[in-house]
Amino acid sequence: MIPLPSPHDRLLDGLFNRLFAIPQREGELDFLAGRSVLLRHATLPVGLRIEREQTPLGARLRVRRHSPFSAARADLTIRAPLAGYLHLIARDRDADTLFFQRVLCMEGDTDLGLRVKNLLDGLDLDDVPLGAQLQRAGTRLLRLLDALRRPPTPRTVG
């Protein structure tokens, strides 16, 4: 029995397919055929598994939440804390910088990792449906994370 996608999975499918509609249409995601990429949180047991699938309507990305109990292996696993992914979305740091700072880690097929990195580097969020909104949301969430990390200022009772 094939499990039905949850509403969250359908939302993620829609978001990723809109974001990558132009590269998909231009064949820039063909290298993902038969491959899987796992985006994992660095310390929490949560992640997203991304695959390219062929449907009667054409190729599309399939995004599913990844269970830490799943025996399925990915061709490439990318690990980062939430802030690392938000830096990529906000475009205030590139993947190379995050990799060399050891914020972002890649395991598995290094050629696939390089191709994914090059795809993301070449993606112009201004030309992508929802891209500018996503970039602004990433920036706002980074500011929120920074604010949450700062120690509270002591209050004086007067």
Explain how this protein is built.
By secondary structure, the chain is of the alpha+beta class. The protein has a domain at about 5-80 and about 100-120: SCP2 sterol-binding domain (Nonspecific Lipid-transfer Protein, Chain A, 2-Layer Sandwich). It has helices at about 5-20, 20-25, 80-90, 95-100, 110-120, 130-150, and strands at about 35-40, 45-55, 60-65, 75-80, 105-110. Strands 3-2-1-4-5 form a five-stranded mixed β-sheet. A hairpin with a 2-residue loop joins strand 2 and strand 3 (about 60-65). Helix 3 (about 80-90) crosses helix 6 (about 130-150).
Q: What attributes characterize this protein structure?
A:
158 residues, alpha+beta, Nonspecific Lipid-transfer Protein, Chain A, five-stranded mixed sheet, 6 helices, 5 strands, globular
Structure at a glance:
The chain contains 6 helices and 5 strands; from the N terminus they run ααββββααβαα.
Q: In order across it, which strands form the biggest sheet?
A: 3-2-1-4-5
Structural class given helices, strands, pairing?
alpha+beta
Task: Write down the Rg.
Answer: 17 Å
- Sheet with the most strands? 5 strands, mixed
Helix content: 40-55%
Number of strands: 5
Mean of all residue-level pLDDT scores: 86
The general outline is globular
CATH superfamily of one domain: SCP2 sterol-binding domain
Count of alpha and pi helical runs: 6
